[in-house]
Amino acid sequence: xxxxxxxxxxxxxxxxxxxxxxxxxxxxxxxxxxxxxxxxxxxxxxxxxxxxxxxxxxxxxxxxxxxxxxxxxxxxxxxxxxxxxxxxxxxxxxxxxxxxxxxxxxxxxxxxxxxxxxxxxxxxxxxxxxxxxxxxxxxxxxxxxxxxxxxxxxxxxxxxxxxxxxxxxxxxxx
Length: 174
What we know:
Elements (H helix, E strand, L loop, with lengths): L9 H22 L26 E5 L2 E3 L3 E9 L5 E7 L5 E5 L8 E4 L1 E7 L4 E8 L7 E10 L2 E12 L10
Parallel strand pairs: 2-10
Antiparallel strand pairs: 1-3, 3-8, 4-7, 4-9, 5-6, 5-8, 9-10
């Protein structure tokens, strides 16, 4: 049996190859984020209770129509928050009319022009907002906004009423 000269270099090439593979894999792992995505579709069941305007946290009992040049009830607002809340009612920018509210609790509504803020509306308190549709034609809409806040909860709503015509006394006491 003869002994030959040991061969060198074959093992070191294998080690060099292994080191290069490991370095390349580590570099690729840091360069490419693992399991990244820009969008995803994740189906989930949602249950949302929808209530009528009158049963919402700001209860609204709105009328469907108001008469031209008559002071009629536009909306009745009830605070269902459970604590005092601030509520503002405003006619939209191009609405031709005036709002009326009972500002002193005597049962008579007064002209407050196009916006009024109820500050500290007590829990369960109900207020009427009346309107005189000064312009517009029959069949047009009179739009108004309601917004306000209670602690960290804010709300913004837009509602409307048809402008109609008719005779008879005003629907609100002026």
